[in-house]
Amino acid sequence: MPRPRQPPLRLVRLEAAIVAGVLSSLRYLLADFIGDDDDAPPFLPDGLPDGAAPVVSEGIHRLIEYQGPSYAKLFVDRLRRFVGRRGVDDAMLVEIAQLMAMRMSYEDPIRIAQLKLAELEMAPGGPHVQHADNVCKFRLDELIGALPAVIAEPILDALEWVGWVHKPISIRFSTKSRWGIRRLKIEASLRRWRLFSIRYAKERVWVEHWLHMIDRSLTKQPKAASAIVQTATMVQGYGDAYRQGLADWHAIIDGLAKPAFDGVLPLPDLAAAVAEARAAVTPDPRQAALKRTIAEIRARVQFESQQPVVPAKAGTHNL
Known about the structure:
single chain; 319 residues; 2 strands; 4% strand
């Protein structure tokens, strides 16, 4: 009787790696939910330059405060792919770490409540000193998006039906009263739900997209990598400013960077093109100036690439 054919060893290893990755992701997602995120703080990546260590350590502490040790480990794992990478010097690695830590600690209402409580505790006069209120204007879908998806999605569907999804809402974060402080603590405690929220899922995809664009730039156009790293500064804050920055970032990446990496846009100097496009960014929801500039850049490089190359005539240069 013939023996059953065994799968190739590499396939077995791949399947084991996939299973391990899924289990690791589940544990990471469930850790904060069940109050079991008691992991030790992650170590600095091996091979990290000495000059980058303080910045990476600051990022780890920031993200432990923001979400917990498991979340800080995700930061270290993401950064590790660029440590020792060809084309990534110390300055670029520091900038990637700084910007990634900022984007991973995005400003949702939970974060603002955390910062307000930290401000209260660290004040020179102690927690009894009054501080100015923070009044932040969010969009309604932004507030609902901080809730777990299973709760948020039906609410957002109802808001869309009545046309209130983009309705602006002002929220006051105050430490002037016991009730204000208690409310901040309740809001900050919602961080255990953050990993299940619609907003977190979108932010995680965005960070991975940004890192992927950096990786592709290092492979396809190394001279433009720094410009791609710095595009993360376009996406920050909350409310309309955040939405505008996110839309502008996608317009530049999808209109210039990605086509250049894919080889469908003959753009020899991507860094200059990104700088030109960013200079056209205005607080315009229609993105009229930005879209016009991107179209002009694309048309210009397409035209230049179609021009015949005229060979130099022999004997015309001076000896």
